[in-house]
Amino acid sequence: MNNLTFDSRKQMDFIAIGRLCIDLNANEINRPMEETVTFTKYVGGSPANITIGMSRLGMKTGFIGRVADDQMGRFIVGYLEKNQIDTTSVITDKSGSVTGLAFTEIKSPADCSILMYRDNAADLKLEPRDVSEEYIKNAKALLISGTALAKSPSREAVFLALDYARKHDVAVFFDLDYRPYTWTSPEETAVYYNLAAEKCDVIIGTREEFDRMECFEQNTDHDDYFTAKKWFGYHAKIVVIKHGKDGSIAYTKEGESFKGTTFPANVIKTFGAGDSYAAGFIYGLMQGWEISRSMEYGAAAASIVISSHSCSDAMPTVEQIDSYIQKCKNGEFVAK
Amino acid sequence: MNNLTFDSRKQMDFIAIGRLCIDLNANEINRPMEETVTFTKYVGGSPANITIGMSRLGMKTGFIGRVADDQMGRFIVGYLEKNQIDTTSVITDKSGSVTGLAFTEIKSPADCSILMYRDNAADLKLEPRDVSEEYIKNAKALLISGTALAKSPSREAVFLALDYARKHDVAVFFDLDYRPYTWTSPEETAVYYNLAAEKCDVIIGTREEFDRMECFEQNTDHDDYFTAKKWFGYHAKIVVIKHGKDGSIAYTKEGESFKGTTFPANVIKTFGAGDSYAAGFIYGLMQGWEISRSMEYGAAAASIVISSHSCSDAMPTVEQIDSYIQKCKNGEFVAK
Amino acid sequence: MNNLTFDSRKQMDFIAIGRLCIDLNANEINRPMEETVTFTKYVGGSPANITIGMSRLGMKTGFIGRVADDQMGRFIVGYLEKNQIDTTSVITDKSGSVTGLAFTEIKSPADCSILMYRDNAADLKLEPRDVSEEYIKNAKALLISGTALAKSPSREAVFLALDYARKHDVAVFFDLDYRPYTWTSPEETAVYYNLAAEKCDVIIGTREEFDRMECFEQNTDHDDYFTAKKWFGYHAKIVVIKHGKDGSIAYTKEGESFKGTTFPANVIKTFGAGDSYAAGFIYGLMQGWEISRSMEYGAAAASIVISSHSCSDAMPTVEQIDSYIQKCKNGEFVAK
Amino acid sequence: MNNLTFDSRKQMDFIAIGRLCIDLNANEINRPMEETVTFTKYVGGSPANITIGMSRLGMKTGFIGRVADDQMGRFIVGYLEKNQIDTTSVITDKSGSVTGLAFTEIKSPADCSILMYRDNAADLKLEPRDVSEEYIKNAKALLISGTALAKSPSREAVFLALDYARKHDVAVFFDLDYRPYTWTSPEETAVYYNLAAEKCDVIIGTREEFDRMECFEQNTDHDDYFTAKKWFGYHAKIVVIKHGKDGSIAYTKEGESFKGTTFPANVIKTFGAGDSYAAGFIYGLMQGWEISRSMEYGAAAASIVISSHSCSDAMPTVEQIDSYIQKCKNGEFVAK
């Protein structure tokens, strides 16, 4: 039991809106990218990864977004479909845009960075007219991601989706997913993040992301409860603030708070931790589980993904997560 | 008595945010602009005009905006100061912007048009950091205008001002003031107008402006009550829908409605009618008058301004409006 | 006799390409623009003024350019036609551009400045496809102006016009007319001015304008002969370097040089001096006059224009210039 | 012997200006890119490839260009240096640009295409001030490439380099290298290609590229001699028009023409054929060889490169080319 409700009569479990892009992951790792010779191509983008994760967990999912009219765009759509994600709201952009790219550099498991290509990216060309009221109405939950707010017309498309979601009782999850590219100023970022957060049921972000949203406020101590409380004055029911390896904390509108656990992992890279966490956590909440159990499920999913080479492709199934948790609890799994 | 409250302890009565520009009014009128030879320069821009109107009516006023770093910008600041408007929040833009211009063409009293210069306009360079929380906190009322939402960073500055106003119990008036320039698409316009309107106490616009805001809704009959009702679900207490010569209608959150009257006028041009109406109406509400009396005051102010050559410069004083109403009621005033 | 030849079989005497705009001249002069209340509207833009000047002097003229699709654009076309200038190559731009504006400020006859509106200006939307090879082929002379090189696609249109002119033995005059607006960097300016100058027969500019072109060279003494000589290695036959009140100097490919005279004037403002000078000078050259007589004619035209309120509208006829020169020589004219 | 002269006192043999980018070549070939999983990273860009080719052939080379301030940019500089190319004029761009990318798709040896990333590309940020007169003066030959003309400020940097080259007797090679990205219109392309070609000694391009340059001319038969002849009226001494598998034809100012041969190859992909041809051909000319022998050398180099996976990395040495020609002439080499 948790404080969210999902309308069981709706056909679709979960849809996300926003970024669809390509990850090019260094094959030769533990070195600077200057010395990387080959790269492997995966579907990427935080909302894409979370949706793939939800689909792997057996949920009925769909996506609202734009892809470039090229080989990369077609690869993305094909991959989503192979993963049973509905793509009827994935539009092919004809404006000459390109697919956003993320080259990953893995110098060491603890020292990872990303080289982004976000100029003229297809996903940011999403338009309000691409957002179908009917499509959103038919979903139990909608996930929005901060990167889709970074630029017009994608920004307006997200606000319209939020409006439809609120109108039709669709639970809204906001994965802050702040990326410094594309945004013009810290103030611009804070204004739109705040306008969007006002309309969401569950807000998930790192402490640093919430700090960024508070650029017009006085939370000099970076107090998590101060942060969470604000949103309960709007529509939020759960606010999760992540502190990396120190775990996360969830607050509820009803005044509870839950400290999250972490699981051991043989870390290859840190990418994908947040997306797999979100998938596991949201999955749990949609099953009606307690918040703490949902957080545990997210943490286990995250440990699985950071032990793999990819983000999207490594998203685990229910069986994988259950078995991972079991092994950890039995002491069978020991991180090297 | 009306349903608004204003905090009498605050020092400033009324501040506006947004467009400050220059009107260049044709001196040779009743002909196409091609045949106009000379133009007279006035301060213009809907929120500027309303603020000048409020100041003429004896209110303590101020303005938040940006002007170009040139002769036109300095003329605007000088004119505001001459009209007792506080300009401490009027910033001189150093980016090389220019002052927005509006050349007016008066082919006949009923056939007026405007030739706008809005590229690289200084007023749209207003930034969130220009908006002082303290300045807004100290005002009883804030007026925002739709044109300031048309472009970043002015758009974000307005959303921040709205946030501060709600936080500090400042009554917010929204003059829709839709101008087709600068906006990218009808959907973009609707999204931001709606996001702003959610945060306002009083919303004033023409039927056509409200239609534009409803581009994602089904109000096929253009029903005024349908329009007004939506906003009472947010923060609105009064919604005024203007129907040009057919007068206006005001709805309250409490379920009342008021039909506005009009006064005779020897019309020179229709420009400035809306701004003077807003000034008179808001003045009345801030005096604590009944809504219907406030509407009458606005209508009288409008009749005075459309009988003059300018907008800003013709904004009437209390004495002028009172005397005009008196004359009309006595039958002394007969429109030619 | 001079060193230029014009093909007498061609139907059109003189065509210009480039800027067509509006001057808004302060009516209340000898004060800062902040205190100016009314403005008078004139056609402006250096190549427009020169063409009007040439037409007043009885030449068969035409223009290649773009005007905005509004009242200002229609006023410009109407004025050109009233002045017997062929407008078949004046295109109405449909992209939503505006007419460039120049507000003049006349603080004193010696202290004049201009406030320019050049954002989204129609004249800079001129495209190569607007340039008719036939139209250029049929002209004895073509004048290009530096402002038209400031931005694409107008820049490319000018280079195409130059190409057609060289191909069909049209004498090319280059009025440097440097304006700091629109250009991105000093290097950009120098590169395109030099590329254009290589293809011209007569180059006319101020010392400061030539300095700007020499940003990649070592003419530290600002030596006029150094400046002129370079262009004789390309197609130039005459180079005129203007030194304001100190008169101008003309060099020929053949090695001659001519010092220009000036005439007295009751100066109202300095605007238009260069354009009227160019008209008078080019007219003289096209009559086959000696260079020194042509320079004198230009100087007299300039004195007439700076004694008037406008630029374009004050362009003198042959009778006016002849009479002015006569009066000056007779000592009848005494500048106050 | 050929009709070019190179100043033997100059220290540097060959420098190029323009595009430095990254090729990401599909490892799994003979399929659509949608099915490609991994990519190998190489330095790319036509002038970069040619310079690498010249360096492999033993010439003293250098490069003028901009690279992004990231891992890709550093990889490029490192690779050039490893190939003995002087990088003192390779600037690291600090504007937040990215490295241009070219993903190659090899559906079959005859059906190859490229997916380009050219938005905000570092190489197009090259500025006139990056071009050192001294650096160009010290080179025997300069190569420019059409892509560097596609956008400001790189376009102006190339024109300045051309100016310095002509001033200091540096032989200029123009590899047309037309790419449809970045250019705004066919007319824009033609205007700048023509302006640049006027200043070059040797112009090398495909028939299609020359057609593009002739958009304002009447060469309806696509006649090669018509094409070449025009440039002999400027500075050109040799014009090479390439007809793909049908070989190429070279014209000289002196009226000769030479038909090029081709060599057999086990083609993997067609990319890099032009660049390796240029390197071999220019190398031959700089050795003082006959034009026909130089063309043969270029053709052999091309056959070697199209039989390999990469462009830059496969550029052959003198020994490799000599041996390849020998084998072909001996009949030892038989294309499969």
Automatic annotation (TrEMBL), chains A, B, C, D:
Q: Classify the source by domain of life.
A: Bacteria
Q: In which pathway does it act?
A: Polyol metabolism; myo-inositol degradation into acetyl-CoA; acetyl-CoA from myo-inositol: step 5/7
Q: Please, one GO biological process term?
A: inositol catabolic process
Q: Which PROSITE patterns match?
A: PFKB_KINASES_2
EC no. given is 2.7.1.92
Keywords in alphabetical order = ATP-binding, Kinase, Nucleotide-binding, Transferase
Q: Which residues form the Carbohydrate kinase PfkB domain?
A: 15-317
Note the Gene3D superfamilies from the entry.
3.40.1190.20, putative 5-dehydro-2- deoxygluconokinase (2.20.150.10)
- What InterPro entries does the record point to? Carboh/pur_kinase_PfkB_CS (IPR002173), DKG_kinase_firmi (IPR022841), Myo_inos_IolC (IPR030830), Myo_inos_IolC-like_sf (IPR023314), PfkB_Carbo_kinase (IPR050306), PfkB_dom (IPR011611), Ribokinase-like (IPR029056)
The catalysed reaction is: 5-dehydro-2-deoxy-D-gluconate + ATP = 6-phospho-5-dehydro-2-deoxy-D-gluconate + ADP + H(+)
Molecular-function annotations in GO: 5-dehydro-2-deoxygluconokinase activity; ATP binding
Q: Which PANTHER family match?
A: 5-DEHYDRO-2-DEOXYGLUCONOKINASE, HEXOKINASE FAMILY MEMBER
What's the family?
Answer: Belongs to the carbohydrate kinase PfkB family.
Function in brief: Catalyzes the phosphorylation of 5-dehydro-2-deoxy-D-gluconate (2-deoxy-5-keto-D-gluconate or DKG) to 6-phospho-5-dehydro-2-deoxy-D-gluconate (DKGP).
Question: What is the protein name given in its UniProt record?
Answer: 5-dehydro-2-deoxygluconokinase
Q: Which organism is it from?
A: Effusibacillus lacus
Write the gene name: iolC
